[in-house]
Design brief:
CATH class of the largest domain: Mainly Beta
Oligomer: single chain
Number of helices: 0
Number of domains: 3
Helix content: under 10%
Distance between the termini: 37 Å
Number of strands: 15
Strand content: over 45%
Order of helices and strands: EEEEEEEEEEEEEEE
CATH architecture of the largest domain: Roll
Length: about 180
């Protein structure tokens, strides 16, 4: 059983017999009241998206889903294509299904595909990914009046704030939950 703190994006839960994927979650607490988790959930059978609040002591049942190692191959305007590393079968998932995930995908990245039955329904990212900086302004020595950060566009298309010493061509580690720079690698 999950508690409300386990409701992170990418988690599959069971509500009234239907499997749902947590798309986003926001923890909240108002003064003296109990903690709650406001979630956006996607029904894995119908594709419908709902909002639901879970209260502090509520127990949530995990959905019966499996995981399989896959490799990201390429992206087009509407979908991302992956290859199963066991069977070498290819499959595509719509970008709307991969909301918040597609920004971290680069060619050849190995991730876990979330399976319901035998059908891939989502992707679970590692906690961090290493991405190459493809575009950023050069840092000027001594220019720390802005807090020492500058925007940098990464190879996946994601833009994050990085320290002034990071240059184009550098590889940086990015947290996939918060989309924040962690360190240069």
């Amino acid at each position: 059983m999950y508690t409300i703190t386990d409701l992170k994006p990418g988690r599959a839960i069971n509500i009234d017999g239907d499997p749902y994927l947590v798309v986003s979650s926001q923890f909240g607490r108002k003064s003296q009241s109990k903690a709650n988790m406001q979630c956006k959930l996607k029904n894995l059978k119908t594709g419908a998206v709902i909002s639901r609040n879970f209260q502090g002591s509520e127990k949530i049942e995990p959905a019966d889903v499996g995981y399989r190692k896959v490799q990201f191959l390429f992206r087009d305007q509407t979908s991302c294509t992956f290859m199963d590393l066991e069977t070498y079968d290819q499959f595509s998932l719509q970008l709307t299904t991969l909301e918040g995930v597609a920004d971290f995908l680069t060619d050849g990245l190995e991730v876990d595909a979330l399976l319901f039955g035998e059908n891939p329904i989502g992707i679970q990212l590692p906690s961090t990914v290493n991405l190459k900086v493809v575009e950023t302004i050069p840092g000027v020595k001594g220019d720390t009046a802005t807090g020492g950060n500058k925007p940098a566009k990464l190879e996946s298309g994601l833009t994050v704030n990085v320290p002034l010493f990071v240059n184009e061509g550098d590889r940086v580690k990015v947290n996939t939950e918060t989309a924040e720079y962690m360190e240069r690698v």
